[in-house]
Specification:
The protein is mainly α. It is built from 14 helices and 2 strands; from the N terminus they run αββααααααααααααα. It has 2 domains: about 120 residues, Cyclin A, domain 1, CATH 1.10.472.10; about 170 residues, Cyclin A, domain 1 (Orthogonal Bundle), CATH 1.10.472.10. Strands 1-2 form a two-stranded antiparallel ribbon. The protein is globular, with a radius of gyration of 20 Å.
């Protein structure tokens, strides 16, 4: 964020966060004339599951990308973090923790926020995705960061000029929990264009942790998906494709109404349908009884709606991440030629 007088900025009226993707800065600018801004938060149209999946999967059949023919005999174990013998116990523990932790999040908290909205949150999360990717952090660090943001915003109203501070503070807390290597505080401040001071960052960290009672180790969709992907033996490109949809789920505030376990199953279901894997419906049959099948299918439609909207949105970091060679350019698989 660029420095300046926040009160003076607010006096202009309506504002929206925009990202300078070249420098990873977030700026506050007047959005009065920006009628073509992001609209990811719109509710998806009432389409049948079959029609939207048929349309989406037709993209796969028309793709000529050689990555789809990836060697099925690759060593899959290298792309997973957990060992199979622990999966059943892990999954059940995650389900129990999910019930506890996601009571902390109000899926309608934006209705009580006076200075920020869901579009600003979407831009913040996309910015964090870019920062997370640049710092080469663990996947779970990103998802925990977004959980902390949503849990905090569920109970505390903040002004727009503090939203990015909340973002880097949440990332800092998640790094301390998940990362082995130390993430320098000054590096995080540099990515916000030094709009905040080290003192402000440390103070915000204390506020967030106290308001959340230091109880932040929530299970995330990424952890559930890791288990689902292994169970159904996704290869590397299939796993990255599912992770693309997982990241997309972080951006839209309206997906907070779904459990993390539901989102993970929805992403696995999309992967199976897209790549025409055998036993696609077993993804629903073999998941926990806590996962509602109707909610999964609604979530699938919502995610497919979002990926279509994303291609025309101003959010660049998530697309750049999954257009990279590291992630085998899986975002290209969702583009109609």
């Amino acid at each position: 964020m660029q420095s300046g007088d926040p009160n003076k900025a607010q006096s202009k009226g309506k504002f929206q966060l925009n990202i300078d993707t070249s420098s990873h800065k977030m700026d506050v600018e007047d959005s009065k004339n920006e009628q073509k801004s992001l609209k990811l938060s719109s509710n998806p149209p009432q389409l049948t599951e079959e029609s939207i999946l048929t349309t989406f999967c037709s993209i796969a059949s028309s793709q000529k990308n050689p990555l789809i023919t990836i060697n099925s005999n690759q060593k899959k174990n290298k792309i997973y973090s957990y060992k199979k013998e622990y999966f059943d116990e892990l999954y059940q523990n995650l389900i129990l923790d999910e019930i506890k932790f996601y009571q902390k999040i109000n899926p309608n908290y934006m209705s009580t926020q006076e200075k920020i909205n869901d579009k600003m949150r979407a831009i913040l999360v996309d910015w964090l995705i870019g920062l997370h990717y640049k710092l080469n952090l663990k996947k779970k660090t990103l998802f925990l960061s977004v959980f902390i943001i949503d849990a905090f915003l569920s109970i505390i109203n903040i002004p727009i000029e503090k939203l990015q501070l909340l973002g880097i503070t949440s990332l800092l807390i998640a790094c301390k929990q998940n990362e082995v290597e130390y993430t320098p505080l000054n590096a995080l401040l540099k990515f916000s264009d030094d709009f905040y001071t080290l003192v402000e960052l440390k103070n915000m960290e204390q506020i967030v942790l106290k308001k959340l009672s230091f109880d932040i180790l929530a299970p995330t969709a990424e952890e559930f998906f890791e288990i689902n992907a292994y169970n159904f033996q996704f290869n590397e490109i299939q796993k990255f494709f599912g992770e693309y949809f997982l990241d997309i789920s972080l951006i839209d505030y309206h997906l907070l109404k779904y459990k993390q376990s539901t989102i993970s199953v929805a992403c696995a279901y999309i992967v199976a349908k897209f790549f025409n894997l055998n036993g696609v419906h077993s993804i629903l049959d073999n998941t926990s009884s806590e996962v509602n099948h109707h909610e999964v299918k609604d979530c699938v439609k919502h995610l497919l709606f979002l990926v279509k909207k994303l291609s025309k949105s101003s959010l660049e970091n998530i697309k750049k991440k999954y257009m990279s060679d590291k992630y085998l350019n899986v975002a290209k698989l969702c583009e109609e030629n």
